[in-house]
Design a protein that fits this description.
six-stranded parallel beta sheet, 336 residues
Length: 336
């Protein structure tokens, strides 16, 4: 097999190399998957530098999100959910490779009509957006929703989910191209968050200038967002892409009866596994209804594991939108 293996922590994605390694031998409780597409994430950039909270012992294979074909099922299971030849997507350490091992709970079936590229980027962003807006913010039809970094992977997922539930969406982004993308995925209005006074622009768009009902924040923009959040509004914090942990003006939270709630999707598996199934049921329904589509970055193609470094570099420099996904060609002996 071929893989992007990390033998020592690197300065950045430009230092990543593709290596030939022995084929994987799955443990009794894991599937063996032939990877056909691998999606990039910001946490990959932290992990390859040794700065992520989950650091496997060296050496290890980078990447976490993928889509591909089942090569073998767990030997310990008499009734596996997936069979040899099934198309699946999922999340497991080692996604930047031609093969990966994954537990059953970390896999989902590729939706009908979807390709590997579209499915590879579903496992993290889609449920994050759904859980944040539907479970935590309890979004309702007719509400106004502000989505920050709306042209990112999780942002585009949130835009589609908010629209599917009947909300009016104001999307923030930082470039003309990203405004175009946000609108292509359903945003009603776009605002440049680099512009001074953008919060006042948001308020002016809402009925009677009352402000938005819900804020979806993967960036770290709570303080400024408080200025344009309506009385009784909800702000869901899903990340800190800007790199700073905010100190929030709690007097504004109190005076406007605003609810702040955090969303860490990864903790649901341990703390609320029954809700994980509910979230995926909701997402697959939206996909079936054609209200949710893949968010693959299409302005440039990334093909082959050698392009992982390029995809991660562009992601780090905020030069992509949606999910930057790498197509992973399979050698003849890896195909079914």
């Amino acid at each position: 097999m071929r893989a992007v293996q990390v033998r020592e922590y690197v300065r950045g994605p430009q230092d990543l190399k593709v290596t030939n390694l022995p084929n994987l031998t799955p443990s009794p409780n894991t599937y063996l998957i032939a990877v056909h597409a691998a999606a990039t994430n910001f946490f990959d950039l932290l992990q390859i530098r040794g700065k992520y909270q989950n650091q496997p012992p060296l050496p290890w294979i980078a990447g976490a999100e993928f889509a591909g074909v089942v090569l073998s099922t767990p030997s310990s299971s008499k009734t596996p959910r997936f069979q040899k030849g099934d198309r699946v997507f999922g999340s497991s350490q080692g996604g930047y490779a031609t093969q990966v091992c994954a537990r059953e709970e970390a896999l989902m079936p590729v939706p009908s009509g979807w390709g590997f590229l579209e499915a590879a980027g579903l496992m993290v962003t889609a449920p994050t957006g759904y859980a944040a807006l539907v479970l935590e913010a309890r979004i309702r039809k007719g509400e106004w929703v502000l989505i920050h970094a709306a042209a990112g992977g999780v942002g585009l997922a949130a835009v589609q989910i908010a629209k599917a539930f009947g909300a009016t969406v104001i999307a923030t982004a930082g470039s003309k191209r990203k405004f175009e993308v946000a609108k292509e995925f359903g945003a009603d209005y776009t605002i440049d968050y680099n512009t001074e006074g953008w919060a006042e622009q948001v308020k002016k768009l809402t009925p009677k200038g009352k402000g938005v009902d819900v804020v979806f924040d993967p960036v770290g923009m709570v303080n400024t967002s408080l200025k344009c959040t309506a009385w009784g509004g909800r702000i869901v914090i899903v990340g800190f892409a800007a790199g700073n942990i905010e100190k929030v003006a709690m007097n504004r939270v109190l005076l406007k009866n605003i609810s702040l709630v955090g969303l860490h999707w990864g903790s649901y598996t341990k703390e609320a596994p029954e809700l994980v199934e509910k979230v995926w049921e909701g997402l697959f329904l939206l996909i079936k209804q054609e209200k949710f589509k893949g968010t693959v970055y299409t302005d440039r193609e990334f093909r082959g594991l050698e392009t992982v470094s390029q995809a991660l570099s562009m992601l780090e420099r905020r030069k992509t939108w949606g999910k930057a996904v790498v197509a992973v060609p399979q050698s003849a002996e890896s195909k079914l």
